[in-house]
Amino acid sequence: MASTYGGAVAARFAAPAHAGRPDGTGWLSGEAGRVPAGVTVRIWLRGDTAGGVTAARFEAFGDPAVIAAADWLCDEIAGRPLTELGGLTARRISEALAIPAAHMDGTLVVEDALAAAAERLAAIGGRSGDDGGCGK
């Protein structure tokens, strides 16, 4: 797999640190993509009253680049203010992980899932909510 996607993608795909539904309450999620199209991503965020993101988790269906991109993104999100999340674009993700151009479509879905989650968190003033894992 490393020869197709590169070492960074292969390592994150093999052992994603942020995969899976979060435990406990205080999370809001955003979702993008569609299973019939071959990719779906849900990003969960936990925020604080100062407008920062304290933690992030994800669930994803897609190729290894999608899983790696979501995991990398969760690493980058934690500790940042909501106002800085806009810089975490599909291009930035793809560059950081050296994702080949043929596999970059999935990073757009990851970016969209983050935008949906960040929008929900910003709408309640940055404090954590609890949507029970439902991005709707």
Outline:
With 136 residues, the protein is α+β, with helices and mostly antiparallel strands. Helix content is 39%, strand content 18%.
For the secondary structure, the number of strands is: 3
Q: Which strand order spans the largest sheet, edge to edge or round the barrel?
A: 1-2-3
Strand content range:
15-25%
Shape: globular
Helix amount: 25-40%
Low-pLDDT residue spans? 131-136
Please trace the helix and strand order, writing H or E for each element: HHEEEHHH
Q: How does the helix and strand content classify structurally?
A: alpha+beta
Main sheet: strands, sense, barrel? 3 strands, antiparallel
- The pLDDT mean sits at 88
Query: Radius of gyration, rounded?
Result: 14 Å
What is the number of helical segments per DSSP (H or I, 4+ residues)?
5
Q: State the distance separating the first and last CA atoms.
A: 35 Å
Question: What would your notes on this structure say?
Answer:
Helix 2 (7-14) crosses helix 3 (64-77) and helix 4 (90-97) crosses helix 5 (105-123). This protein has helices at residues 2-5, 7-14, 64-77, 90-97, 105-123, and strands spanning 28-34, 39-47, 53-61. The chain is globular. The protein is α+β, with helices and mostly antiparallel strands and 136 residues long. The longest helix has 19 residues, at 105-123. The chain has five helices and three strands, in the order ααβββααα. Strands 1-2-3 form a three-stranded antiparallel sheet. The relative contact order is 0.25.
